[in-house]
Amino acid sequence: MNKETLTAIRKKLPKELFYAPLWKSLFYISRDLLLFLIFSYLIYLTDKIYFCFPIWILQGLSILALFQLSHDLAHGALIKNKTFANFFAQVCILPTLHPVNQWIYGHNGIHHGNTSKLKADLAWHPRSIERYKRMSFIDKFLHKIYWSWYGTGIYYLIKMWLQGLILFPAPNFKAKRDIVFVITFIVSSISGIIFIGGYNGNEFILINGVILFIKLQLIPFIIWNYTIGIIVYLHHINKDMQWKKEGEWTPFYGQLRATSNYKLPAIVNIFAHNIMVHSPHHIHTKIPFYNLSKALDIIRKDYKEYLFERESFWKDYFESTKYCKLVDSNGKWVRIEEIQN
User: Fold this and answer.
1) Beta strand 308-310 pairing with 260-262
2) Which of 37, 85, 149, 240 could form a disulfide with 321 if both were Cys (CB 3.0 to 4.6 A apart)?
3) Model-level pTM greater than 0.90?
4) What is the mean pLDDT of the chain?
5) Residues 292-307: pLDDT tens digits?
6) CA 223, CA 240: separation in Å to the nearest integer?
7) Spatial distance between the Cα atoms of 280 and 269, rounded to a whole number of angstroms
8) Cα three-residue angle 24-30-32, rounded to 5 degrees
9) Could you give the CA distance from residue 236 to residue 257 in angstroms, rounded to a whole number?
10) Alpha-carbon span 196 to 142, nearest angstrom
């Protein structure tokens, strides 16, 4: 059998990697929902801005934790019963304001089927030099922001969430239904928070309600967008990693060579759920997050030379956001300054 195929790699993975006891899944779901509620309550109680900052960070990480659980539930990695898995997936993903079936359409279908494939994959799809030259001044300005070190959260908020998940529905009923549900939740939750913050028993003070909304919902949501934006960026963007065009791209290349793996600090990984151990997930989406490191160890035995493993998370992030702006006809990364000289 050809070694460079997904089938060949998958045959190396033992069955125990896919074992996901229901009690363990329910434990993580309960734990992370509880943490989210605790942090929300602490933010609600806290009036001192310097106390809010660390709790906002923890709240952003708790949203990441719930997202990763929803991600695995949507792939069928944590709960095998589809009805229960879909229910908990929507519950866990709700703090991200993602309509679950709209997200599944783009992530499970398009992204996993075309990982790092030019003109096919979704997030942070590289712009060619030729296309950049044809772009308007405003589009060039936005491109520079989106691909900067400070723009990943803005990119995720506008391109991935607003445009990709809210404004342009997938061609199926479930996606459209979930978008309506999430929009309804957004409006009702904002209204409820503003009312709770503004009403003191005798009168309603709008500014107090708006302050609570900003403190309790808006700031954690922005932190979440930056957290997931940086993570998704590093999953498949690096100055040493190329996207391939049709004819050159293969599933083996996209899922293994063009997918990164980083080791996060243990305290962060409590929330991240091995989100940066990414190649094993792309090799087989049914592996639960807590077995991804074991899967990576197994894959490394025969495919070490193909794996993209790095230690320098932040160094790679800042270097890549400096150098990875456009791609030439061969898929090589090019800085904007290089085509202007």
Assistant:
1) parallel
2) 149
3) yes
4) 95
5) 999 999 999 999 999 9
6) 28
7) 16
8) 100
9) 9
10) 37
Residues 199-246 pLDDT 10s: 998 999 999 999 999 999 999 999 999 999 999 999 999 999 999 999
Tokens for 190, please give them.
């904002």
Distances (CA, A) of 188 to 85, 97, 191, 209, 327: 25, 12, 5, 14, 43
Residue 216 burial by Cβ neighbours in a 10 Å radius (0-12, 13-18, 19+):
buried
Per-residue tokens: 188: 């009702």
Q: CB burial class (10 A; 0-12, 13-18, 19+) of residue 195?
A: middle
CB 81 within 8 Å of CB 100: no
- In this model, does residue 52 exceed pLDDT 70? yes
Other CB atoms within a 10 A radius of the CB of residue 129 amount to: 15
Token digits for 95?
């703090």
Mean pLDDT in residue range 307-317: 96
Please tell me the distance from the alpha carbon of residue 145 to that of residue 124, in angstroms, as a whole number: 12
Two tokens at 162?
A: 């607003």
Q: Which amino acid is at 177?
A: R
Of 83, 73, 75, residue with least CA distance to 33: 73
Phi, psi of 128 (to 5 degrees): -80, 160
Phi, then psi, of 169 in degrees rounded to 5:
-65, 150
Structure tokens at 229: 């934006």
Nearest to 154, CA basis, from 243, 235, 37, 233:
233
